[in-house]
């Protein structure tokens, strides 16, 4: 039951933007370098994030990426869903008709998947980029512009 | 693309285990019965039950009235035990790649927190709880049909 690497990198990239992209726009190259992800892969991820409206581009000499919504409206869950499509351990939780079993109408295990799904969403839908940024800055103790690795 | 999903083995295996718990009533249940009720192939159930048996979650009973039974009372088997046998590690993430400050921060503050929440559900729910929930649902359905 693993999250895709892509969705984890997406959150890393967006948190990096929130923390280090305050005063100027960052390019994908910078974000990739800061998160130790290959630039080509980060480019793909930001393409998907852009389609979902979570980031947008500003052209020009000082161009780069900017967040598509206020930091307090971007949750972990929203980023994962933009990349992976959903955030459920079994697809019937999001959509019962995705189950083709004859036993579907009186399924005895869906309740368990719903409970697990709720446990995941409880954290993912509550945590915003703003909260994570504030916590990150607090933990790095003001040294956030120095050594990022 | 790899998404966060429980495998077929995990999904079918849990369904079969719950069916067994509901239908063995202290005795045992046949794989043919589980197959029919759960719309799962007998072949698949045979392989999954030999695996569950080796893992010590079920006991096989030979003979004409034979089948399988839970290895322990339903209130002593947690979802955690079953899911770790069927799925292995239930964490939502693998540790990978060079560790950046952001990555270890997110591991600690997001992914480990999600893992903890999921583990609380898994370790805090027994097969007896699952059966009770199914019975309650049936009762409320019966009543709403009146």
Low-confidence stretches of chain B: none
CATH class of chain B: Mainly Alpha
* CATH fold field value of one domain in chain A: Arc Repressor Mutant, subunit A
The CATH topology of chain B is given as Arc Repressor Mutant, subunit A
Basic shape of chain A = elongated
Protein architecture, described:
The complex is a heterodimer of chains A (149) and B (146). In chain A, α1 crosses α3 (39-51), α1 packs across α6 (129-140) and α2 crosses α3. In chain A, 49% of the residues lie in helices and 5% in strands. Chain A has a domain at 5-87 and 127-140: Arc Repressor Mutant, subunit A, CATH 1.10.10.10. With 149 residues, chain A is mostly helical. Chain B has 146 residues and is mostly helical. In chain B, a hairpin with a 5-residue loop joins β1 (58-61) and β2 (67-70). Chain B has a single domain (8-145), classed as Winged helix-like DNA-binding domain superfamily/Winged helix DNA-binding domain (Arc Repressor Mutant, subunit A), CATH 1.10.10. In chain B, α1 packs across α2 (31-38) and α4 (79-87) packs across α5. Chain B: This is HTH-type transcriptional regulator CymR. Chain B: One of its GO terms (cellular component) is cytosol.
How would you sum up this structure in a few lines?
Chain A is mainly alpha-helical.
List the helices and strands and how they pair.
The complex is a heterodimer of chains A (149) and B (146).
Chain A lengths: L4 H16 L7 H8 L3 H13 L3 E4 L5 E4 L8 H9 L25 H15 L4 H12 L9
Antiparallel strand pairs in A: 1-2
Chain B lengths: L7 H16 L7 H8 L3 H13 L3 E4 L5 E4 L8 H9 L13 H24 L2 H19 L1
Antiparallel strand pairs in B: 1-2
Helix pairs in contact in B: 1-2, 1-4, 4-5
Pfam families (chain B): Rrf2 (PF02082)
Keywords (chain B): DNA-binding
GO molecular function (chain B): DNA binding; DNA-binding transcription factor activity
Give short descriptive properties of this protein.
heterodimer; A: 2 strands; 5% strand; B: 146 residues; 6 helices; 61% helix
